[in-house]
Specification:
The chain has 8 helices and no strands. The protein is mainly alpha-helical and about 180 residues long. The chain is extended.
Length: about 180
């Protein structure tokens, strides 16, 4: 009997899309590269730094990344309640549509929080340089092409992980067989 572990494709895509979104927004890096997180003793960013960080995020169209997150939470919640009683689907769909409209404005909260994160990690001069860069032709190209490159990289990594997983499964089975266990 071959045991294969499959992650639901929809969940995997949502997780990858979220990771890509955060990477594009410049907020996700491998844990080792992040260093120490700012603590409560860190000085609050200046209003000018927050404004620059917000301009960077707007230039990068980060709100387009956050909007699907809000929709995803509403839809996942609707689907969770749908499992309770599928006969409620009409009402749940209507409620979900209304909530999505109501919560769409919450992307501003996400942008404000992301701007605060940027303003903690970069000083005003660095933020000015970043904004200037993103306003150049190369910066504009990075904004357009980086998400595509990240999508392709994530797809490649997913394919690689599936192949690697099969190698690990085969090796583990072989090793367990040597120990008298048939998986």
């Amino acid at each position: 009997m071959i045991v294969r572990i499959h992650i639901g494709r929809a969940i995997a895509r949502l997780a990858m899309a979220t990771l890509v979104a955060l990477m594009v927004a410049g907020m996700a890096r491998p844990a080792a590269a992040q260093g120490a997180a700012p603590n409560a003793a860190s000085p609050a960013p200046s209003p000018a730094a927050l404004l620059l960080a917000r301009q960077i995020l707007e230039t990068k169209h980060v709100e387009d990344i956050f909007k699907p997150l809000i929709r995803g939470v509403v839809i996942n919640t609707r689907d969770m309640f749908m499992q309770t009683n599928f006969m409620w689907s009409k009402d749940l769909n209507e409620v979900a549509a209304n909530l999505q409209k109501e919560y769409d404005s919450r992307t501003k909260e996400l942008l404000d929080d992301a701007a605060r994160i940027y303003a903690v990690h970069f000083n005003e001069q660095e933020l000015k340089q970043l904004l200037s860069f993103y306003q150049t032709p190369l910066g504009q190209k990075v904004i357009v092409e980086e998400p595509k490159a990240l999508d392709e990289s994530m797809a490649m990594a997913g394919t690689w992980a599936e192949k690697f997983s099969q190698d690990v499964i085969n090796k583990m089975r072989a090793e367990m067989r040597k120990r008298g266990h048939d998986l």
